[in-house]
Fold this sequence. Notes:
Cofactor: FMN
Radius of gyration: 19 Å
Distance between the termini: 13 Å
Family: Belongs to the nitronate monooxygenase family. NMO class I subfamily.
Protein name: Propionate 3-nitronate monooxygenase
Oligomer: single chain
Strand content: 5-15%
Keywords: Detoxification, Flavoprotein, FMN, Monooxygenase, Oxidoreductase
Organism: Actinoplanes sichuanensis
Number of strands: 11
Amino acid sequence: MSDRLTSLLGIEHPIVQGPFGGGMSAVPLTVAVSAAGGLGSFGANHLAPDRVTALVGELRAAVPAGRPFNVNLWVPHLGEQELRPSAADFERLRPLYERLGLPVPEGYAPPPLFDDQIDALLAAGPPVISFVMGVPPARVIDEARRRGIVTLGTATTVDEAVALEQAGVDVVIASGSDAGGHRGAFLRPLAESLVGTFSLVPQVADAVRIPVLAAGGIADRRGVTAALALGADGVQIGTGFLATAESSASPAHRAALASPDARTTVLTRIFSGRHARAILNPLIRELAAEEDSVPAYPVQNTLMRPLRAAGAARNDATYVNLWAGQAAALSRPVPAADYLKSLL
Length: 344
């Protein structure tokens, strides 16, 4: 096994905890993974710039000296930051709001702008920044390199991996269709970008010269061994860490991960307007006919947020986005450090 990834990131073990967007990341989990010799990560795509600054300060104070950590942002797709909901978008969800006793939103607050977020993040200077959904702008890569920040980019196809390498990112994450949460395809439509992890990894390893992280469907030592054998320099694991003790997953989400339901996952747009892999639940079944008609991300994501929060507060998995990869049934509710050790 090459040590070029561990040397570049300054970690002991070639294990990266996948970042969770939309408020699902947790500082204690990030700290626990970094302290145990891996790379702890935090998804900051939902945070305003001042909160990004505060987050980096909090992580820097909590992570043991000399241990790196990673903060993740989403590269916006063309035009998505200008999208706004129509009256019909609100009305479509009225029955669900009323079912949970929630008021129908009267307005729409768009999420923070990527340019503002990344400027704050670069200024704060975390050791590592990772990206999903696209190629970060050249000015971002240049500034990160100037500041000594390692950059990771996420690819769902070989062509995307090559594009990220050509843009100058330091590490490419080969994210197979097995992975939980949002799919990050950006060069071709989703239907043309669903490559399984263990088909994608060797092709990416052959196509690029930078280190490769395998992601998707890896949850135990066997998956790590297979990924390394196929040419990866390390692995990024999301769902396995989401099930650990330090995660911020809701009780309903934890219960689903620990149940036989975790054996069945689907890609759905219902919760956010962008395809994401989740454990099948009643709401996905109920709204199956609307998969292609809900508004795009981030509009649908914002409109569904109150429903997801209410479901989590009631411990009702019907309304919770139960993000999970296809190896979710292999996850275990143990401390993050113990889980990381089990992977070695």
